[in-house]
Write a sequence for this structure.
């Protein structure tokens, strides 16, 4: 039987939006966003609702516990991406994050935090959201890609990833910060680290060519290889297809990698073979959600907490 890994959570939080739309307030620094002039706003919202519903069903069918919350409000167009405003950590820790766009700060929900406390063993909640008043931002596991095994936080510098906030998080949560500059094929800063990098138990998907400094690129590639992981290098086109925006999860029959159908199509056959040596691939069809500039990884907030034992009633 495959050994459980601290890198691969068994449960996730998802938000099912009722009024989804690509957020114009975040488009300036998110080159992954796109518009769809062929469909009405209502049709786009309905399609996203269906995509999230089907994705949650597929994850549950694979043995992954999904805590699915509804977002019926009209003021939170990016609510489908909860991993940006909170994260959970072994030992019973929860972090709440400062968000760059004021339109995204309304996504933080106390009912989700309370669910975590009720269903899982939560010792403390560290709230960094006050840093928003100082113009300091760190958008959760979008801004950081965490190696839970080696305790390293990889982060690409951007409007949404501030070095001061990263250092503070790493001090509190016992991670080593590794920050770098990453750009797309047009030389624009990549807004979130998790679109260029995914760390699993035995592999790492990473767009090494996005790392601007050659020495830093070699250093990071070397560090990942030293962990014993297979490093799968993604090119700019694959990054644009969300091939890096994946997450390893613990399913009923072993570890899986959840990624979008678009991401799966962007990977080469040899890369797929390498991945399938250690995980099963679980593609989810989310093309409408991807209009907002994020994909499957952004949609899933992993729960790295110990579940409470059910109380006999």
């Amino acid at each position: 039987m495959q050994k459980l890994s601290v890198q691969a959570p068994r449960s996730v939080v998802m938000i099912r939006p009722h009024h989804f739309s690509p957020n114009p307030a975040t488009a300036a620094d998110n080159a992954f966003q796109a518009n769809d002039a062929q469909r009405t706003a209502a049709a786009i919202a309905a399609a996203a609702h269906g995509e999230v519903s089907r994705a949650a069903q597929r994850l549950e069918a694979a043995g992954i516990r999904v805590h699915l919350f509804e977002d019926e409000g009209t003021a939170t167009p990016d609510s489908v991406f909860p991993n940006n405003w909170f994260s959970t950590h072994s030992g019973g820790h929860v972090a709440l994050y400062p968000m760059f766009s004021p339109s995204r700060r309304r996504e933080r929900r106390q009912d989700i935090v309370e669910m975590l406390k009720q269903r899982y063993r939560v010792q403390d909640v560290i709230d960094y959201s006050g840093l928003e008043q100082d113009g300091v931002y760190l958008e959760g596991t979008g801004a950081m890609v965490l190696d839970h095994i080696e305790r390293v936080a990889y982060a690409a510098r951007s409007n949404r990833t501030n070095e001061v906030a990263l250092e503070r998080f790493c001090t509190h949560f016992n991670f080593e910060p590794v920050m770098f500059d990453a750009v797309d094929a047009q030389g624009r800063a990549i807004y979130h680290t998790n679109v260029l990098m995914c760390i699993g138990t035995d592999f790492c998907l990473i767009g090494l060519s996005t790392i601007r400094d050659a020495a830093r690129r070699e250093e990071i590639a070397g560090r990942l290889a030293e962990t014993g992981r297979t490093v799968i290098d993604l090119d700019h086109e694959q990054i644009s297809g969300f091939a890096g925006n994946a997450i390893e999860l613990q399913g009923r029959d072993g570890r899986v990698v959840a990624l979008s159908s678009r991401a799966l199509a962007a990977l080469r056959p040899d890369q797929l073979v390498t991945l399938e040596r250690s995980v099963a691939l679980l593609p989810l069809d989310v093309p409408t959600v991807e209009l907002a500039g994020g994909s499957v990884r952004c949609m899933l907030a992993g729960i790295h907490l110990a579940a409470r034992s059910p109380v006999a009633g």
